[in-house]
From TrEMBL:
Biological processes per GO annotation: protein repair; response to oxidative stress
Protein name: Peptide methionine sulfoxide reductase MsrB
Keywords: Metal-binding, Oxidoreductase, Signal, Zinc
Residues involved in Zn(2+) binding: 83, 86, 132, 135
UniProt family annotation: Belongs to the MsrB Met sulfoxide reductase family.
Enzyme Commission (EC) number: 1.8.4.12
């Protein structure tokens, strides 16, 4: 009987946390505390028609692809990495490095302002989510364990990017 009660409490807790997370995502604020407004605003139906199911899950529903499976994870060609949803230039091959995380990793965006940062408290962790500043698409997360000169690791889902070879 005690096990059933404990299991019920755990299940209800996860449901409650999920509701809080879903509620928190509806009012996105940037790292400066301001509301995020995007140049490109489309309906969910439009995004579903334009993106692959995997891209939609990651870019619009904040999903994550499995580590070491992304098409761009091992890419070493010279070029630009653009948002798969809107084409905004986000990262350069010059700042890509092998982090061992299983996702494409960069130590900085191509220029200031091309990505927005947002607090992510999902799954009981405190992280910083990275979004495309043009369309609001979820790209991944940034961590403070990267190489010089920034010390940052932008850990990005391959499906949220397209690569333009030089």
């Amino acid at each position: 009987m005690k096990n059933k009660i404990l299991l019920s409490i755990i299940v209800l807790s996860f449901g409650f946390i999920g509701c809080l997370k879903a509620n928190g995502d509806s009012n996105q604020t940037n790292s400066k505390g301001g509301m995020m407004n995007y140049e490109i605003n489309k309906s969910d139906e439009d995004w579903k028609n334009e993106l692959t199911p995997e891209q939609y899950k990651i870019l619009r529903q904040k999903g994550t692809e499995m580590a070491f499976t992304g098409a761009l994870y091992k890419n070493q060609d010279k070029g630009k990495y653009v948002c798969a949803a809107c084409g905004a230039v986000l990262f350069s091959s010059d700042t890509k490095y092998e982090s061992g995380s299983g996702w494409p990793s960069f130590y900085q965006p191509v220029k200031e302002g091309v990505v927005d940062k947002q607090k992510d408290s999902g799954y009981g962790m405190e992280r910083t989510e990275i979004l495309c500043s043009k369309c609001g698409g979820h790209l991944g997360h940034v961590f403070n364990d990267g190489p010089r000169p920034t010390g940052l690791r932008y850990c990005i889902n391959s499906a949220s990017l397209k690569f333009q070879k030089e």
